[in-house]
Every structure is written in C-alpha cells, then in structure tokens.
Amino acid sequence: MNNIFNLFVAVFSLKIAYEYLSIFFEYKKGIASYLTWGLYYIWQGVLVFLAHLSWEVNLLFTIFLVFLVALFSYYGRIVSKIIFVLMYNVLWMLSELLIGYIYMVLDISIYEEVEVGSLISKLFLWGIVCSIKYFLPHSSLVNMKKYDIVLIIIPIGSIIILNNIFSVSKWINSDTWRINSLISTGILLIINIVAFERCKKSFEEWELKQKNIFYKNQLDLFNNSIQDKQKMFLDMRRVRHDLKHHLIYLIQLIEHGETNKALDYMETLVDETITKEICNTENIVIDSLINSKNTLAEKNQIDFKFDIKVPINMPFDMADISVLLGNILDNAIESCLNCKISKRRIELIIRFEGANLLIKMENTLDKDKIRRVKGKFISTKTNAENHGLGLYSVERIVEKYHGYLECNNNDEIFLQKIILFG
C-alpha cells in the first residue's frame, strides 16, 4: 500500500512541475523530454526512502532535475528557465518548511510521518501553482529582460535564508524560535509572491506597449494608404493636364507618316504616366496594400509572388484586414532582408470562400534571426519587441473574428496560415 501511495505522490509531483513550467513556456515533445521526465519521476519516487539525505544534496538534485526538464521539454530562453526553476524550488522549500514547522509545533516526528507530510506539502505547492496560473496573464509571459537579475536574486536569496533557518531549527529546541522561524518563512513566502506580482505588472506594462504599437501600426498603414491615393490623384491630374499636348504631338507624327516613332512615343508615355498595378482585385484596400508592398519588395530584390481572389466587399472591417496584411508582409520583408539576395522569396495566397477569409504566406528566413517562446516567433534584434512581436497585432485581429492562426518554420521557410470567420 505504501508503494502505491509513493507512486501516486511521485506522479503528483510531476503534474505540479508540468503545470508550473507550462505557465511560462511552451511544451515540446521528444525523446530527451521523456527521458528527463523519467529521471525526475524516479527521483521523486525514491525521495521518500531518503528522508535522512542531506537537505543540501536533496535541494541541488531537485533543482538540477527540474532544470533538465525545463531545458529539454520546453521552448524558451535558458535565463528565463533558470529564473522560474529557482522560483519553483523556493516555493517547494517554503511548502516543505511550513509543514515541517507545523509538525514541530504539534510535536509530531517528521521522520515518522514523512509520507503524509510530503503529500500535504505538495498539496500546498499545488495550490500556489494554481494561484500563479490564475493570476498571471498567460499570453504575456514572453518578454523578460529588465527584471531578470532581480528575479534571480530573490529566489536564490530565499533558498539560502530558508536553508539557514531550517538548519538552525533542527538544533534549537525552543517553541519561541520555532514560531519565529515559521513567521520568517511566511514573510519569505510573501516576498516571493510580491516578486511574482511585480512580474505580472511588468508583463501588463509590456502588453500595454504592444497595444500602443498595434494602434500606431494601424495609423501608419492608413497614412501610407492616404499618401498613395494622393499620389495617384496628382498623377492623374498631371496626365490630364499634359494629355492635350501629347495628343497634338502624336497627331503630327502620324500625319507625317512617322508611325513607328509615334508608337515608341506612346510606349514611353505609358511607362512614365501610368502606375503599374500588378494586383487588381477591385478591392481598393487590398490592391493598394499589395501594390505598395510589391514596390518595396522590388526595391529590396525580393521575389514576391501572390495569388489573390477576393470580392470588393467582405464582412470584415477593412482597417483590420489592412493591419493584418500589412504586419505579416512587413515581417516577411524584414525576414527576407536577413537572407542572401538569391534566396529572398515571398509567396502569398488569399481566398474568400463561404464568408471566410483564408490567408497562406511563405517567406524565406535566417533561422539564427528568430527564436520561439511560448509559441511566438520573436526577432533576436535589440528592439525585438517592435518586430517579431508585431504578430501581436495579427493575433488580436484573429481573436476578434474567432479565427485561426498557425505559424511554423524549418531552416529556410517561415509559414503562416490564417483563417478569419465572417
């Protein structure tokens, strides 16, 4: 019966670690992942038989194994993994110590009731993890830079202090000391909770910044669209103003029998006065945006191919469509600029079927210029929050229309699939 109980506690420990790490990182499957989880499970299973094992050795092994799990089973930066693994072990130590102090106050032998104490401490830890999962914003835990050092200092300091408190508590047989130690442990728990709360606020500030970037992108796209229309209008006025003179010259050429010269002049006139619009779906927003991005792609020697079939009117706010297409094309162009000229390529397919908008886009990339955190592809540039995370704007629009967004990549190609439901 005890063996079954111990197996249950070991499985429960894995469940707690999985839920905790999944708050901050995206899970990835693989042989290395299964092996590290297996090692951690074995360690948790034999811990109950190692009650007399040194506290320091127990702690170091647990930290090391949880870090291996985070390293091989989740996407994310190593620094972020170190921070959250340390925090996890601080919370685990706090749970163990609180149960230990309660045992001491109640005059219960820790070694005689180690199995029950282990389960109770894990239930307490499970409650803390559930609270973190509930209160911290799930979609914002991707950009940790400014507070990295502070977040490392807090859990490391807590581990050292807790270890010293526990070591002294074993040698001092005093109810007053035990109560004071319990209070100190509670204070450390509050400090770490406050650290998490500060973390949450920093993430909320980051999310607000992304919203501001979203609206700025929206305004920029509309300003560019207005400027394109103004330029087109001025070109049309100039053509109308000069048309009479051009026609008079052409008539003179034809009257003098210089037909070839007249044809050459007409071809030159067409090239100089008429803007080449390679996208002509009659949907003004999409046409102007695609033509504008095509011009930018040509300037940067990017092979831009597209196949677009959409009606003039669609059941979507065209401002959203403009922002969505503008962002994914800007990101694609930026990605291509990191590649050799011979490999710069963008392929875009857009279809409107059954009141739904389907978008598929592929572009070449340099795999060393992006990283993946929580399923998001983030630029490695210094100002990455304004680049790869431009997908934040796309995500908001996809959510608005209860749509679907999928991003995948291999060593050379980045693929996006988007569906908006009308």
Could you name the key traits of this structure?
422 residues, two-stranded antiparallel ribbon, elongated, 11 helices, single chain, 5-stranded mixed β-sheet, alpha+beta
Short description:
This protein is of the alpha+beta class and 422 residues long. It is built from eleven helices and seven strands.
Walk me through what this model shows.
- There is one protein chain.
- Strands 1-2-3-7-6 form a five-stranded mixed sheet, covered by helices on one side. The protein has a two-stranded antiparallel sheet with strand order 4-5.
- The two termini are 58 Å apart.
- The radius of gyration is 31 Å and the shape is elongated.
- With 422 residues, the protein is α+β, with helices and mostly antiparallel strands.
- It is 65% helix and 11% strand.
- The protein has eleven helices and seven strands.
- It has helices at 2-24, 31-47, 55-73, 78-105, 114-135, 148-171, 175-255, 259-273, 284-299, 318-337, 391-400, and strands spanning 303-309, 345-353, 356-364, 370-373, 376-379, 404-409, 413-421.
Give the arrangement of secondary structure elements.
Blueprint: H1 2-24, H2 31-47, H3 55-73, H4 78-105, H5 114-135, H6 148-171, H7 175-255, H8 259-273, H9 284-299, E1 303-309, H10 318-337, E2 345-353, E3 356-364, E4 370-373, E5 376-379, H11 391-400, E6 404-409, E7 413-421
Parallel strand pairs: 1-2
Antiparallel strand pairs: 2-3, 3-7, 4-5, 6-7
